[in-house]
Amino acid sequence: MKKYGVNELRKMFLEFFESKDHLAMKSFSLVPHNDKSLLLINAGMAPLKPYFTGQEIPPRKRVTTCQKCIRTGDIENVGKTARHGTFFEMLGNFSFGDYFKKEAIAWTWEFLTEVVGLEKDRLYPSVYLEDDEAFAIWRDEIGIPEERIFKFGKEDNFWEHGAGPCGPCSEVYYDRGEEYGCGKPDCTVGCDCDRYMEVWNDVFTQFDGDGNGNYTELETKNIDTGMGLERLAVVVQGVDSIFDVDTIQAVRNAVCEAAKTEYKTDEKKDISIRLITDHIRSATFMISDGILPSNEGRGYVLRRLIRRAARHGRLLGIEGKFLAQLSEVVIRESKDGYPELEEKKVFINKVLTQEEDKFDKTIDQGLSILAEMEAAMKKAGSKTLAGQEVFKLYDTYGFPIDLTKEILEEKGCSIDEEGFKKAMEEQRKKARDAREVTNYMGADVTVYESIDPSITSEFVGYSEYEYDSEVTVMTTESEIVEALTDGQAGTIFVKETPFYATSGGQTADTGIITIGDSEFEVEDTVKLLGGKIGHVGHVTKGMFKTGDKVHLAIDVRRRLSSGKNHSATHLLQQALRDVLGDHVEQAGSLVTPDRLRFDFTHFAAMTKEELQRVESIVNEKINAFLPVHTKIMPIEEAKKTGARALFGEKYGAEVRVVNMGDYSVELCGGTHVSNTGTITAFKIVSEGGVAAGVRRIEALTGDGVFHYYDELERTLLEAAKLVKSTPANLLTKLEHMNAELKATLSENESLKSQMAKEALGDVMDQVKEVKGIKVLATKIDNMDMNGLREMGDQLKEKLGDGVVVLASAKDGKVSLMAMATDSAVKAGVHSGNLIKASAACVGGGGGGRPNMAQAGGKNPDGIADALAKAVETVESQIK
Fold first, then answer.
1. Of 180, 551, 561, 650, which alpha carbon lies 20 to 30 A from 145's?
2. Which residues are 797's β-sheet partners?
3. Helix or strand or coil: residue 348?
């Protein structure tokens, strides 16, 4: 087999279909024309949709194209694997009501085996499991043995998108050899490994679907063929991946040259090499079609691609701007099929250079701000960057959301995407309202950054619930102020505070700040950069001024409840390690006064027995009244004690160690009980998965456990009352009721079946023979569609071979159902078309498959005509 290049293969495909009377059309722009459903053209048929729907008349009934396409659905995986890419070329041949399966399949085989020269014994077709026609063509006309033709279900071999034209597919797979396989003994076509690569997909658009699983035959059937040019090149050239085919390899080599490195010597570098190679191809083609970088729509997609590539260039150590230089390689390799690239070369280079310049000016500052945000996240024990912070990077430093996401994911963190969307919408609303406010997410954050860096706060809340201190600074939501008065919202900072700020998974203290008769209600406490602790809330009466000596008092009940839950998480972590193993690490936590949530690394759902053991161990340690001691010590000394650190957390030179007897030792800055006995009780209420390899337990302690059982008891009493029993006898009562219900349902089904048979009478007398085919068309009173189907199955079995058509009226509505045996279908009977014709007589519609179909209507008076029409239609269908 000759190893044709990408440009040769493109030309060969188009010329082959031109020889089959197809019109070879130039690739359409990546910008969709009059199609608001797409941001970018993502398939060969996408720009041809008006021809398929009949909105426009095609220039010829047979068309062939090589369409440039972009898909960004898997953008996060680009580079990480050699499979994924955003840009590709889609070869296609299309028929608009002209040829159908027979020709399409024959030409598929002819092109792959005779034109390209692929070995026949390495090609495996697949068909939709109900598409006997395609299966027969592959077997009888192409000559493929049955065992080499694979039948797959709807998910793999049936194309549909909501309601409208749809149909089965036939794909062709190429066996690349055992070296690309997974090694499993059952590895075959359809396996997820790289051995069997799909190279061709014929879509036979023959049905009109209603979106609810009902299909009718289209009068005008179409062919939509798709074949990835790069995938075909991988097979023809015998290379590992799309990044190794000639035209893409040239770009990849240019990336390596710019980075002064080699491909496949360092996996981490390979990720960046592949990502840049792919993204510069997409960017070059998008710009050639007039798309410019922006913060909206397809322009934002382009900006994301360029800036991701630029960042990965930095990771590879490429100095200076390099993307325009790489685009010249893309243009050189692809201008054969896309001459517009050469024509727009200067424009493409200019756009890439300007965008790289813009990003260069902000990336260093943005990375610095992101590093500060990461540090704050870690101190707070969080793994998720707030949506507001993500938006700040996007709005101020030009970081596309997925760039921030990618950088954080490399460090095991994530972003709050919903929060980002909310922040984006808020900014748009502000712009619409023309308010003069900062575009940074929260005015409060902006004002906090304006506070003198020398102002700090000392936390004294480990030992104190109340404390007197001096107000150092105050802010409203938009500015630093000297005073806050009655009704005003703001933030108060003091020199020392007993208020615990949200961090380490533990939620903040609330409480009050007073001076004389003046009172400030603290609704939240926040820890800010530079060692500041802010008390967020509002003045309920009086006034506060900078320099005031105020009294700070936390909500002690809330603090104690949080302490119980926080101490319980320490006991829980150690109990999980005891039961599940040392692989258990904390992956996040949330401690509130009401409950606790603990995320941990584990790779399977916990069993009921494991959960019971963990719960028992924690309660055992609570009842042991273990003393809880805390001590500040150097980090190295703390590690020697065996203290458990939060995975991925960054600690200072000195740390706080929390001991619970000899059972649990952890580094922790949170608040705790002084003795485990104070926790009183512990109850796990749920366990589930939150991410791959991460489980989550939610639990209650102390009064929360008692409230839980109180609620459980109330529910039990209500349930017992409902079935006129007592809690003690409820189980027995329910067992009796369940048995009675089963008996009643069984009796009901028997009665329904008997009634149906009686209503039907001896219908076999009504069987007619139409051109050698037995036809039973009859009416059954007062039966729904489920009943008709059940009765139809019984009658079809009784009939042996032939057609059953049943009609029934119930509550003023008509149900029609038709079934045909295999022999009847082979004779030409099509239940879907039959039922469609009959349904018109009862003012309705429907359809279905050749062997079974159903319909509804609203005119019971037309049932006799509908049944007569059914017999008439069968007669016309039989060949």
1. 180
2. none
3. helix
Q: What are phi and psi of 758, to 5 degrees?
A: -65, -40
Give yes or no for a contact between 27 and 65, defined as CB atoms under 8 angstroms apart: yes
Buried b (16+ CB within 10 A) or exposed e, 32-44: beeeeeebbbbbb
% helix, strand, coil for the chain, step of 5: 45, 25, 30
Q: Which pLDDT tens digit goes with each residue over 719-770?
A: 999 989 898 898 998 999 999 999 888 888 778 777 666 655 567 778 888 8
Residue type for position 464: E
Instruction: Round to the nearest angstrom and report the end-to-end CA distance of the chain.
Output: 46
Tokens 């390209």 label which residue? 116
Angle, nearest 10°, between helix axes 401-409 and 297-315? 30
Contact 90, 228 (CB under 8 A): yes
Angle at 437 between CA 436 and CA 438, to 5 degrees: 135
Q: Write out pLDDT tens, residues 284-302.
A: 999 988 787 877 788 889 9
The three-state DSSP-derived secondary structure of 122-153 is HEEEEEECCCHHHHHHHHHHHCCCHHHCEEEC
Q: From 794, 799, 768, 800, select the one nearest 780 (Cα to Cα).
A: 794
Contacts within 8 Å (CB) and 24+ apart, 340-345: 340/288, 340/289, 341/284, 341/285, 341/288, 344/287, 344/288
What is the four-CA torsion angle of 706, 709, 711, 713, rounded to 10 degrees? -130
Q: What residue type is 184 in one-letter code?
A: K
Q: Are 568 and 590 contacting, i.e. CB atoms less than 8 angstroms apart?
A: no
CB 128, CB 158: distance < 8 Å: yes
The residues with which 406 forms a beta bridge, in sequence order, are none
Full-model pTM: 0.50
What span, in angstroms and rounded, lies between the C-alpha atoms of 190 and 171?
11
- The residue type found at 144 is I
Q: How many CA atoms lie within 13 A of 114 on its CB side?
A: 8
Spatial distance between the Cα atoms of 284 and 294, rounded to a whole number of angstroms: 15
Cα separation, 601 vs 383, whole angstroms: 14
